[in-house]
Amino acid sequence: MRPKLIASPYPDGHLVVSPGQEGGIKLGVNKYAELRDAASTAPVPGWLTVAARAKWGMDVTGRDVGDTVMVRPDTPYGYARASYELNLGCNYDCDHCYLGEKLFAGLEWSGRERLLDIMAEAGVLWLQLTGGEPLIDSLFAETLAYAYDLGMMIQISSNGSRLHQEKTLDLLRTYRPYRLTLSLYGATEQSYDGMTRSKGAFKRFMRGLEAAHEAGLAMRINCVLSKHNAHERDEMTAIADRYGIPSFEYTNITPTIHGTGEVLPSQAREVLRRHDPYTGCNAGLTHFHADPHGMASICKIGREEQVNLLDEGVEGLRKLAVIGDRLTTRHGGCTGCTLQKTCGTCMPLANLYRQAKAPLETYCQHGSGPLSASSRGGES
Hints:
This protein is of the alpha/beta class. The chain contains 12 helices and 13 strands. It folds into 2 domains: 5-71, no CATH class; 81-320, TIM Barrel (Alpha-Beta Barrel), CATH 3.20.20.
């Protein structure tokens, strides 16, 4: 029987979370220790019974701690989140994709198992499974199940093309993600299929969206705007609204992770906008990214310096704090910029724009262009 609750260390404290559910319950050190030290046959404490009912409508009255709560051990590393690219391969060929060339290559099972064990040892509680397209990865089911059983809260980022398949839905019902994030590339077949360069892609997306909604999966829709679909901006949001799903807009096309600019012409200039001022982040400190080969970086963008986790193990993650300081510090032409405090572009991303010889207006306030302050949210 899988536990209904997970008690886990978290930066500056502890949390109780429930697999497949959003949110968590903050714990003091004494209550975490009570759960950690409880006998497996001890009843779930009354305070947790009350809190779980209030938070998730969950009734654990009369249940044993051992059958109900997985207690993850404290860790000296302090990582709460990670993202993991299972494979860069994809069944679409979007001309805006920041991955550039989408190669089918990644770790075999023994390597993945070790990588996930390292993440768990580092304290990772929230794990994003991404790609490429993760649902077409040959080891997706095994990866999802193993991470889930390690006590990780799973978010899956997908194009939704496989969600209409019953075997996929059965898997997601069994190992329920707390969020399924779907990218939406248009509101009509013409724009959607044109952006993905895949005939029938829009129909597959809508079938998958309907099936996932009926399955009760928690979803979020990212409306990715480009020259193919910007004219359908409102209609794309309306699709999400129809199902009562939160939606966010992604308007700025970025260079590839290799610093090349072949994707930049897909930018719809009329929706280009400035992001909120960049004031620093915890990349490399409380979260990190792992590519398909187990190479860790501070984030998906800052890949200039990586750590081979399969070779170095969890101790290798200690290098990321220094790497993060080095990569995020303003340098080059940005060092003396008088507009630094209002700049919305982090240094690793600015470097990619420079390498790609992108128009200045797409990432720097010294450019001239139709940029306006960000008005709709997004996810980093």
